[in-house]
């Protein structure tokens, strides 16, 4: 099922990836090629089959709700584009 | 010295036949000479490597040496390495200096290994040819106009060109096995949950697994021994005992039941590849194994199911790259929306964007049931095929790839043509099963890989089978003509 330009724009917004005019056509063509591939799943008979999320059917391991490690904020923020007083700086959100 | 196997290097270092400093300097010099040709490394850490080599030599002299003390290795640039750039082959992380070591890196360092540097890879591990890296493609040492495979193309080329005796790599749909096959080396993807993913940049969390690449099953066993085991920091890492892989290598092959899926020997398989694989199977029979025809009926659904699940999981995992806390940030963002959208448009390459968008589509309202839920149901069918097969056989063998290494650009920009290179490898990731590739022949001077798929946590038996094959054959000892001509 091929998708149209308007659908691509909606996906780009959901994925927060800017779509430039010159790449729009190639992007759409590539995605449609993949959709052709995955549409082959429609023919599969999966009646009554439960979905498999974890390949070994394990469930999430839990641990005690106890502080177990110390996080070195300065070391982790050393790689940040812009920080101040331990906070990450971004463009103003609310005018 | 670079022709020594990893095992021989361990032995030579322990006997003080040579020092880690000598060995490390030798390999660093080879890398400096060879990297313009192969582009296998993104970052080389000469100072760090020599410092670690010196420490290793001190421990060897003191008789306090762990298993891999002083052996130089390379890490795929998907593993965080403290203080060293960790790029994941992407512009998005070109400026990212990892603040910590991945568990895999920590464990190999604790075993005494010396890190030479970070190897090139397809961007965010998405690819089968190492053509999508921000740092340029990697050349196959066997045929420099051909791809090395991907996404672990740099690790594969580094080992094949004898720039490192071993390297770490990752496999989500075949990214260890396929480049191992195309570069004529041994690569193993462990059982899902065998090796910790902590500090390994995530592509598809239910499929990703770290594993070793080296020139033999014995060498792979030594690396896997150091890498495997429970890690509380990775909630998908399973707590199962780790066997002594090296001790188990000499188990004879007599009585082994080997399954041959009809679906892996059908249309689309290169005739030269098929011949090489059949010859390899004859060797297993000679050693007492029994070949059994089996079926994996849902095989043709593996690639479609994977290209729903992997992109869907990738769209979630790559949402963290937003220009706020690390990595690339676009210049002069107008507002928050512009920050996110332009950062990600600039930071990601075309293949990564395509997969994120496909994944977003499959998870979006109105399409989730038809695609993601459906793919998860198919995933259970594929897993069940293997469980049924392992009731009758111990191992499943077949070709790793449908063709030997192809030329750059050969897939003509058709993403699906590229995806079909993983047609035999993908199912093992969907089922979470361990699988490895060993070299078993040459077609037009290019390597062919034999794939061995095992049952859950059966890596010891798989490595023993591979070792038995390698004791009687010499495909794993062959090297590209260009390398042999260049001399020591």
Q: Helicity of chain B, in percent? A: 25-40%
Distance between the termini of chain B: 8 Å
Average the pLDDT over all residues of chain B and give the rounded result: 97
- The CATH class of chain B: Alpha Beta
- Strand sequence of the main sheet of chain B, in spatial order? 4-6-5-10-11-9-7-8
The percentage of residues in β strands of chain B lies in 5-15%
- CATH fold naming of chain B: Amidase signature (AS) enzymes
Approximate shape of chain B: globular
* Spans of at least 5 consecutive residues with low confidence of chain A: none
In words, what does this structure look like?
- The complex is a heterodimer of chains A (95) and B (488).
- By secondary structure, chain A is mainly alpha-helical.
- Helices cover 35% and strands 4% of the residues of chain A.
- Chain A is flat and about 55 Å long.
- With 488 residues, chain B is an alpha/beta fold.
- Chain B has helices spanning 6-14, 20-38, 46-62, 103-110, 153-160, 177-182, 217-227, 271-286, 302-317, 336-347, 350-363, 369-389, 415-419, 426-431, 459-472, 481-486, and strands spanning 41-44, 72-76, 114-119, 166-171, 186-189, 209-214, 257-261, 290-294, 395-399, 435-443, 446-454.
- Chain B has an eight-stranded mixed beta sheet.
- Chain B is globular.
């Amino acid at each position: 099922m091929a998708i149209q330009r308007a659908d691509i724009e909606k996906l780009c917004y959901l994925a927060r990836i800017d779509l430039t005019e010159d790449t729009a056509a190639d992007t759409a063509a590539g995605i449609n090629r993949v959709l052709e591939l995955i549409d082959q799943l429609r023919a599969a008979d999966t009646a009554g089959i439960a979905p498999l999320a974890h390949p070994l059917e394990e469930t999430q391991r839990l641990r005690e709700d106890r502080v177990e490690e110390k996080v070195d904020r300065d070391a982790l923020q050393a790689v940040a584009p812009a920080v101040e007083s331990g906070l990450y700086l971004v463009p103003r959100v609310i005018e | 010295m670079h022709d020594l196997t990893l095992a021989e290097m361990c032995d030579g270092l322990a006997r003080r036949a040579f020092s880690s400093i000598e060995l490390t300097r030798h390999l660093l010099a080879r890398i400096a000479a060879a990297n313009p040709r192969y582009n296998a490394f993104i970052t080389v850490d000469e100072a760090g490597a020599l410092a670690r080599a010196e420490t290793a030599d001190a421990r060897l002299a003191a008789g306090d040496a762990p298993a891999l003390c002083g052996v130089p290795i390379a890490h795929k640039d998907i593993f965080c390495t403290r203080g060293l750039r960790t790029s994941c082959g992407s512009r998005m992380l070109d400026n990212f200096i990892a603040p910590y070591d991945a568990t895999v890196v920590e464990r190999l360092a604790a075993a005494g290994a010396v890190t030479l540097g970070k190897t090139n890879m397809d961007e965010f591990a998405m690819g089968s040819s190492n053509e999508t890296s921000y740092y340029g493609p990697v050349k196959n040492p066997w045929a420099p106009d051909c791809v090395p495979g991907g996404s672990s193309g740099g690790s594969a080329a580094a080992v094949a060109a004898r720039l490192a005796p071993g390297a770490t790599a990752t496999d989500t749909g075949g990214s260890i096995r396929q480049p191992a096959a195309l570069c004529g080396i041994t690569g193993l993807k462990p059982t899902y949950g065998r090796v910790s993913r902590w500090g390994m940049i995530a592509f598809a969390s239910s499929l990703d697994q770290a594993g070793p690449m080296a020139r033999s099953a014995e060498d792979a066993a030594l690396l896997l021994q150091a890498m495997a085991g429970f890690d509380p920091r990775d909630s998908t890492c399973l707590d199962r005992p780790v066997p002594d892989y090296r001790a188990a290598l000499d188990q004879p092959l007599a009585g082994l039941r080997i399954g041959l899926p009809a679906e892996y020997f059908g249309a689309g398989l290169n005739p030269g590849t098929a011949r090489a694989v059949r010859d390899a199977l004859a060797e297993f029979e000679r050693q007492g194994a029994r070949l059994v025809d089996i079926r994996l009926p849902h095989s043709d659904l593996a690639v479609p199911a994977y290209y729903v699940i992997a992109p869907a999981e990738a769209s979630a995992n790559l949402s963290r790259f937003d220009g706020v806390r690390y990595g690339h940030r676009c210049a002069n963002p107008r507002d928050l929306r512009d920050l996110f959208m332009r950062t990600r448009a600039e930071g990601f390459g075309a293949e990564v964007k395509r997969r994120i968008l496909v994944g977003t589509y499959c998870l979006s309202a109105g399409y989730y049931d038809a695609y993601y839920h459906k793919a998860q149901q198919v995933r259970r069918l594929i897993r069940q095929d293997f469980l049924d097969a392992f009731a009758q056989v111990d191992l499943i063998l077949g070709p790793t790839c449908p063709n030997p290494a192809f030329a750059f650009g050969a897939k003509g920009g058709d993403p699906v043509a590229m995806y079909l290179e993983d047609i035999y490898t993908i199912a093992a990731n969907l089922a979470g099963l361990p699988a490895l590739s060993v070299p078993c022949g040459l077609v037009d001077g290019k390597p062919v890989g034999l794939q061995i798929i095992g049952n859950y946590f059966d890596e010891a038996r798989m490595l023993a089978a591979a070792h038995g094959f390698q004791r009687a054959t010499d495909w794993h000892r062959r090297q590209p003509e260009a390398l042999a001509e260049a001399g020591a």
